[in-house]
Structure formats: C-alpha cells, structure tokens
Design a protein that fits this description.
The chain is mainly β. It is about 0% helix and about 50% strand. A hairpin with a 4-residue loop joins β7 and β8. The N and C termini lie far apart (about 40 Å). About 30% of the residues are buried.
C-alpha cells in the first residue's frame, strides 16, 4: 500500500553507532504499525524491533534489547532505528516494514504481518 525507502546503512566498527531511517514514497504511514527486520547471508529474515500506532508501544528482539531504539516522528513522517554498541553479529541487510493493522491482532515478530517493505540497507560491523 505504501512504498518505503531505507537509508543510513554503512560500515562501522564494533562498539560504534549507526542510525537507520525509513521514509514513505507516496503517502504517510503515521497510522501504521511499523517494524524493522534484518537478514544476514544464509539466514532467515529476523525480527529486530517494532512500534505500534496505538500507544506507540515498542517491542525488541532479545538480541538487540538495550542497544537498539525504534522511534517514529509522525510530524516528519519518518521511522528510525538507533543502533548502539554494535556487534559483528548485527551485520545484515535491514528492512523497514509497514502494517496497516486491519487484522485486529498485531503479530509484530512475523514478517507475514507486514504489507509493505523497503528495498533494504546494508549494515556491516567490523571487528
């Protein structure tokens, strides 16, 4: 329904920080549930973080909790993922995803829940 574009990926040393952004191309996603997923070579797409439209409640994978922060700025119509204390295990292509929330239940860890996806941005963490 909405077109998404990620940005902010790059190469960073372990222990460093990086901020990813996601913006729509075509329309606002301010009333959507939003999520970040990642996929490393040879692995399945993995849930990273999500934020609900109702209440702005956030969710994190155990592997990133305490290090990553998901946020949204509805006025600017952007979604962000602030990544700190990066590890080599965080190396992956990161994807932004949007869920219109019509199912009545938000299964935020499931990639199948989301209707729109960005093209992905590469994050590489070196030791």
């Amino acid at each position: 329904q909405v077109q998404l574009v990620e940005s902010g990926g790059g190469l960073v040393q372990a222990g460093g920080s990086l901020r990813l952004s996601c913006a729509p191309s075509g329309r606002t996603f301010s009333t959507y549930n939003m999520g970040w997923f990642r996929q490393a070579p040879g692995k399945e797409r993995e849930f990273v973080a999500a934020i609900r439209w109702i209440g702005g409640i956030t969710y994190y994978a155990d592997s990133v909790k305490g290090r990553f922060t998901i946020s949204r700025d509805n006025a600017k119509n952007t979604l962000s993922l602030q990544m700190k204390s990066l590890k080599t295990e965080d190396t992956a292509v990161y994807y932004c995803a949007a869920d219109r929330g019509v199912s009545g239940s938000y299964h935020y860890t499931s990639a199948d829940e989301y209707e729109s996806w960005g093209q992905g941005t590469q994050v590489t963490v070196s030791s």
